[in-house]
Design goal:
- The chain has 196 residues and is α+β, with helices and mostly antiparallel strands.
- The protein is built from 5 helices and 15 strands.
- The N terminus is likely disordered.
Length: 196
């Protein structure tokens, strides 16, 4: 199926372009090669396995969110790799994401629908895509908050759904500030602790 498509691949962290819009069935045929494969709008994106700094930030985010969510019962946190099917042409593996209590989107195999909170840890290979096509994808598919965390820049940008319905850049914070969310009352995570 996938082999019949005309494709070309750019280097590190770029997309594979093809003449056809790929689907989840195509996604399932991608190799298990240690890289992150995603579909956005039917286009195939490949990102190499993450660097140590990235994984440290993911681990700290996971620990902080898991402690909070376990204590409050407000949801559950997951990390990549776990497929999130937003449509037949949109399959992503966010670095970290939260399924809020009451969201019935988790199956034994994957997630079907938009998590309440999606967190991407930006890297040089993904920063542009995280801010562009992925933010647009999360906006149109109903993600309630999108946190783009940038360890290299020592900052985070928080996008929240406005009453009008758009996912809007609400807050950009630097390393001296903390991440908070109206979806997670009393949760706070200092960027100094996240980036230490």
């Amino acid at each position: 199926m996938l082999g019949s498509l005309s494709t070309r691949t750019r280097r590190r962290g770029m997309q594979t372009t093809s003449t056809a819009k790929l689907t989840y069935a195509d996604f399932l045929s991608f190799p298990d090669d240690g890289q992150r494969h995603e579909l956005v709008g039917g286009r195939h994106y490949v990102t190499p396995s993450p660097m140590t700094k990235h994984q440290r930030v993911v681990g700290r985010m996971l620990v902080a969110l898991d402690a909070y969510l376990s204590a409050t019962g407000l949801g559950e946190v997951f990390v990549a790799p776990l497929d999130v099917l937003l449509s037949d042409h949109d399959v992503v593996e966010p670095d970290v994401f939260v399924i809020l209590a009451g969201q019935d989107i988790l199956t034994d195999k994957h997630v079907v629908g938009a998590p309440g909170i999606v967190i991407e840890i930006a890297s040089p290979a993904t920063r542009r895509r995280d801010r562009g096509v992925k933010r647009n994808l999360y906006d149109r598919t109903g993600v309630r908050e999108y946190w783009m965390v940038d360890p290299d820049g020592g900052s985070a940008t928080l996008f929240r759904r406005t009453p009008a319905g758009a996912l809007t850049d609400i807050l950009s914070i630097d390393a001296s500030a903390s991440i908070t969310s109206p979806l997670l009352p009393a949760f706070t995570l200092a960027l100094t602790a996240l980036f230490k």
